Amino acid sequence: MEFDNAATLVVGSAGGASFDSTFLNALPGLNSIGSLVEDGGTIIYLAECAKGLGLPPLKEGKDKLRQALRRFVLGRVSEVSNKARVRLVSALPDYYVQKILKFKPCKAGSSALKSIRRILKNEARMFVVPLASRVVPTRSGTGLDKNGEQ
Q1: Cα–Cα distance between 50 and 15 in angstroms, integer?
Q2: Using an 8 Å Cβ cutoff, are 76 and 26 in contact?
Q3: In angstroms, what is the C-alpha Rg of the chain?
Q4: Disulfide: which of 28, 50, 88, 124 matches 8 by Cβ 3.0-4.6 Å?
Q5: pLDDT tens digits, residue range 48-60?
Q6: Cα(55)–Cα(53) distance, rounded to whole angstroms?
Q7: Of the candidates 101, 93, 110, which has an alpha carbon nearest to the alpha carbon of residue 44?
Q8: Concatenated DSSP letters for 34-90?
Q9: What are the residue ranges spanned by the domains of the chain?
Q10: CATH number of the domain located at residue range(s) 8-132 in this protein
């Protein structure tokens, strides 16, 4: 996906069952759309996460490998949440979304949109990315073509 300027609001979906069964599976899509949003913008990310966070280490890390994986995942989450406000529409318990991921939980896309409607201005730039896990954002003018070659 090629884009010129970042958006005030990015609405993205992980892409369905194989991409959002757990938060760990949905994470690549969130990282993809994270590069599309402007600093201080908002992301609404739809990822069912019916099977939870994805790995026990995200709840409790006991050995070095599990702790390293936990730090990696939470580091990626932190990169996005430091840049933008994130509303996560998922089946995850609110506690996980708020306390572990540091996002605002929403149970439906419509409630997520309603919660940010008053923040946005009429001229706000918005992107909708239905298959975020399959998207590789590229800023226009980087010298790369759509295949990532110069």
Answers
A1: 14
A2: no
A3: 16
A4: 124
A5: 999 998 866 555 5
A6: 6
A7: 110
A8: HTTEEEEEEEEEE---TT-SSSGGGT---SHHHHHHHHHHHHHHHHHHHHSEEEEES
A9: 8-132
A10: 3.90.226.30
Question: Cα–Cα distances in Å, from 31 out to 98, 108, 128?
Answer: 18, 21, 15
- Phi, psi at residue 90, to the nearest 5°? -160, 175
Asked if residues 31 and 133 have their Cβ atoms less than 8 Å apart, the reply is no
| pLDDT confidence tier of residue 37, bands split at 50, 70 and 90 | very high
Judged against a pLDDT cut of 90, whether residue 114 lies above it is answered with no
Q: Residue 12: what are its φ and ψ, rounded to 5°?
A: -135, 150
Q: What angle do CA 129, 13, 105 make, to 5 degrees?
A: 125
Q: Name which of 149, 110, 129, 103 is nearest 35 in CA terms.
A: 129
Lowest mean pLDDT, pick from 6-20, 58-72, 103-117: 58-72
Tokens of 125: 């730039």
Q: What is the pLDDT of residue 149?
A: 59
pLDDT at 86 > cutoff 90: yes
Mean pLDDT of the chain: 85
